[in-house]
Amino acid sequence: MPPHLPVYIGPDALAELTRFCRTQGLDKLTLVADRNTYAALGERAEAALRGQGCDVLTVLLEADDIIADAHSVMQVLLALDRTPRTYLAVGSGTITDVTRFVSHRTGREFISLPTAPSVDGYTSIGAPMAVDGVKLTVAAHGPLAVFADLPTLCAAPRPLTAAGFGDMLAKFTSTADWELGSLLWGEPFDAAIAARSRKATWACAEKADAIAAASEEGVAALMVGLIESGFCMLDFGETRPASGYEHHISHFWEMKLLREGRHSVLHGAKVGIGVLVSARRYDAVRRMSRAEAATRVSRTPLPDREAQIRGIRAAYGLIAEQVIAIQAPFLEMTTADFEALKRKTLASWDAIQRVAATVPPAVDIEGWLRRAGGPVAGREVGLSDDEVTLGVAFGHYYRNRFTIGKLSGLLGIA
Q1: CA 144, CA 141: separation in Å to the nearest integer?
Q2: What is the pLDDT of residues 354-371, one digit of tens each?
């Protein structure tokens, strides 16, 4: 894992935190947590810092279902005083994103104290925020340092650890999508970063049983993988190394839940289900001969632009026009463009199958998820069969990227 910023994962995170603050001259802090994360680690962090003479202002987010939105941001802002302070995010993805956003907009740095190995965004520079029922990733900044207390991570609720594992397994399909987009759509790709991401993902998959048992060995491996995934995104400058069709499906579901005022579902739980959707499609590609692919693409007509737009408007609601604009390169394809894409697909078939071979069989991924306690079907997280089908059908429109979602349409893979 290349050096980017100080990262500590071990049993003495609070000692390392106080030492860091002392050496960096950080004696005024704003600690952001919720009731659960304050009890898990925040209270001890507050006491350790105050024991070193630090001035700590503590902000506890209050809600039954805390999300990274304007309400949470305002709770933090209302609690601030006029003292310049470094922020301390004590929590998992939501707390970190709220703190990242507020610290960036108030011109201060922040330090991350993860309380669960649940997401790969701890070192990210972007903050996924819910704005009027729409999930947007807004520009912010990464932390000064990350101090992960291993006993606290091991004690995290099992669904949070399973969500982190699901988010990590997504790198199998996201890196495949990333390479597929480079082959067929000319998208930027970095083989070295993709190799790093795949290596980190395999290291976690091989520790599936240890992760499921919440052992120090397994949880440490998962946290190392999640941090490395964040660094891969940081090094490439965008999310492609860690986010493909599986994430686009998840984002679609998440926005639908937000629009309808329904209880949120852990990001990594939804992503893990999306990974299985993608992996099953890569299974189909891996089994498909070039001759069968040629027959399939010959039967696929140019998608009807107006029909796609009607579908996007029905599926995406308020942000439909934005999605339509993003998808212009696909929606505006001519018959000649589409035939050229078909020819390129067949000419690249050996390379496509090589990419598909980097994704483990879906049955293996499902087994790893089940052992970790993660959901493998939409109904397990409150999504109906129709909602799952809708996400699978329209998730690929969420980003202007060529993923297994788009290749499946070209090949007629259901």
Answers
A1: 9
A2: 999 999 999 999 999 999
